[in-house]
Specification:
- With about 550 residues, this protein is α+β, with helices and mostly antiparallel strands.
- The protein has five domains: about 100 residues, no CATH class; about 120 residues, no CATH class; about 130 residues, no CATH class; about 45 residues; about 45 residues, no CATH class.
- It is about 30% helix and about 25% strand.
- The strands form five sheets. The protein has a seven-stranded mixed β-sheet with strand order 5-8-2-3-4-1-9, with no helix packed on it. The protein has a seven-stranded mixed β-barrel with strand order 10-13-12-11-17-14-18.
- The N and C termini lie far apart (about 230 Å).
Length: about 550
């Protein structure tokens, strides 16, 4: 109060202490709310097509066989097309609820691929979780089938493209040299409605073998082929036979190969033979003409040179010439020159020039039987020096012609036909009459009296020979051998004396030579005398000199 009894009023600045009460209340309430949210277990909703095997309050959520949550509620979606599960997780499981997390129901399943979920027969079905990366999320769409690959599986996902899926499906195996290396995850049709993209997974450590030059081919089912080599049956495994399968290889090369395959799309080939064919880029086409039957020769039949395939048959047709009323069979073949390695060829020489050189030296084509069981034919190229190059074409085709010769079976058939033709010219009746005459003469000869006498004499001779042998057996063989030895010694001495007489340096030989020389001189003298008497016959009466004088007069 003032001095005059009046109260003095003063105004205080700042907040009043009474405002502290609601402020403290607000802070405590906020802390309690945050604490409640923190302590509350995380929840999420999962959508499935059906709630088969799922029970509210009983079906657990498991990760690696550890229970981390439970299904609290099951209800229909607004459109009644599927069901929604409300799931409560244990505290600290918030990091599992990400965009790429997957859920699926584990229940007993029996199929041709095997049996899974046997343990749930007693414990009941449960929901498995496969945590994935991404932003936090509370609503998920569950998988209707158990995934083939989870985040824990080490390996690499790849994509392949093909025009024919065949019997491939999710779970089809992938092999590397016969070893199980991965499986097919799924497939989808491309935007062009022609290509089919196959998603696959190669497990560790086989994924390290996949490179940019790796080649994949289909090994599904049972590959049964019937060709010139006979019947061939191939299959990778029983599993591939039933569910389809793939196989791959990575060729060794000196060139740099891309090891980053994440964004690559590999081509899936129908079989490994197609890969081998595409390895040879150069192809030359030729036409051949055959006059004989080509039954068993089909497109795709091999073209071989000395037992090595260097090409194949592309087409077989039948042509008719109405003017000449004749037929011919052109066979279009394809030769892959890269299959033939010429170590001496010049760098600029072409394969066509090389083949023409071989034709000039006797290269010919003919049909051969590849399998007697199937009757399949193939075209055989070989060198036949000295054979004439016969061309049947008329230069109307755009492809060069290779000369042909008759096949082995055709040549044998022609030889048989020629033999039969010659056999038909033989007079069988005359030959039969001659044979009958010979047999009749032999019969008369054997039945004559002279023949009977001959047989009698032969029997007597055999009896005499038998008596001689008996005498030899009864004689003293030792005395006979000694006597024979003495005779041989005397014979040896006689031959020695004859050899001495006949030796060129022996006196007898010298005397014989002298007598021979004198006889030659005597013969010359007689020849001169005869010639003189022919000229001068009067010399016998008047003498040689008078005859000579008369001639001079």
């Amino acid at each position: 109060m003032s001095e005059h009894g009046r109260p003095q009023v003063s105004q205080k600045t700042g907040l009043s202490i009474i405002w502290l009460i609601p402020l403290v209340t607000a802070i405590v309430g906020g802390w309690l709310a945050v604490r409640t949210l923190i302590d509350q277990a995380p929840t999420a909703t999962i959508t499935f097509n059906t709630a088969e095997g799922i029970q509210a309050g009983k079906t657990a959520i498991k990760y690696k066989s550890v229970e981390i949550g439970i299904v609290e509620e099951i209800r229909f979606a607004e459109d009644f097309d599927h069901v929604e599960l409300t799931v409560t997780f244990n505290e600290g499981m918030e990091q599992f609820l990400r965009r790429n997390t997957r859920f699926w129901v584990v229940r007993p399943q029996f199929s041709l691929r095997g049996v899974s979920g046997i343990g749930t027969l007693l414990s009941g079905s449960y929901i498995e979780i496969d945590p994935g990366p991404g932003a936090p999320q509370n609503h998920f769409i569950g998988l209707e089938e158990i995934p083939l690959v989870t985040r824990d599986d080490a390996g690499t996902a790849i994509t392949l493209v093909t025009n024919d899926l065949g019997s491939l499906a999710g779970g089809s195996p992938i092999y590397y040299q016969g070893l199980l290396a991965g499986e097919v995850l799924g497939y989808e049709l491309g935007s062009d409605a022609q290509s089919i993209y196959i998603h696959a997974f190669i497990r560790d450590p086989y994924d390290q073998l996949v490179r940019g030059n790796s080649r994949f081919w289909n090994v599904s089912g049972l590959d049964v082929s019937m060709g010139a080599d006979g019947v061939e049956v191939k299959t990778a495994s029983l599993q591939a036979l039933m569910f389809g399968g793939l196989s791959f290889e990575t060729p060794s090369t000196l060139e740099a190969v891309n090891a980053d395959i994440e964004n690559l799309i590999f081509t899936l080939y129908p079989d490994h033979d197609v890969i081998d064919e595409e390895a040879y880029t150069r192809k030359l086409r030729f036409v051949m003409y055959f006059n004989s039957s080509v039954r068993g020769l089909n497109p795709g039949a091999p073209l071989e040179f000395k037992g090595i395939q260097i090409g194949k048959v592309l087409d077989v047709k039948l042509e008719f010439n109405s003017q000449e009323t004749s037929f011919r069979i052109p066979v279009l073949v394809e030769i892959e020159p890269d299959r033939i390695v010429d170590r001496t060829a010049e760098p600029d020489s072409s394969a066509a020039v090389m083949l023409q050189t071989l034709v000039d030296r006797g290269l010919r084509a003919r049909l051969s039987t590849g399998s007697l069981l199937t009757g399949q034919l193939y075209v055989e190229l070989n060198m036949y020096p000295g054979t004439e190059a016969v061309y049947a074409g008329d230069n109307t085709t755009p492809h060069p012609e290779l000369p042909t010769i008759p096949g082995a079976f055709e040549a044998m058939t022609e030889s048989v036909q020629n033999f039969v033709s010659k056999l038909e010219t033989v007079d069988v009746e005359a030959m039969g009459e001659n044979i009958l005459g010979i047999l009749s003469g032999a019969n008369e000869l054997l039945n004559t009296a002279e023949s009977e006498q001959t047989v009698t004499d032969l029997q007597a001779s055999m009896r005499a020979l038998k008596n001689i042998l008996k005498n030899v057996e009864s004689a003293n063989l030792e005395e006979t051998i000694l006597s024979a030895n003495t005779v041989l010694v005397n014979l040896n001495q006689t031959l020695t004396m004859i050899d001495g007489v006949l030796t060129p340096n022996s006196p007898l030989q010298y005397n014989i030579l002298q007598v021979t020389s004198e006889l030659e001189e005597t013969a010359r003298a007689l020849r001169s005398l005869v010639e003189m008497l022919e000229r001068q016959p009067q010399a016998i009466i008047f003498g040689r000199e008078a005859a000579a004088g008369d001639e001079n007069e």
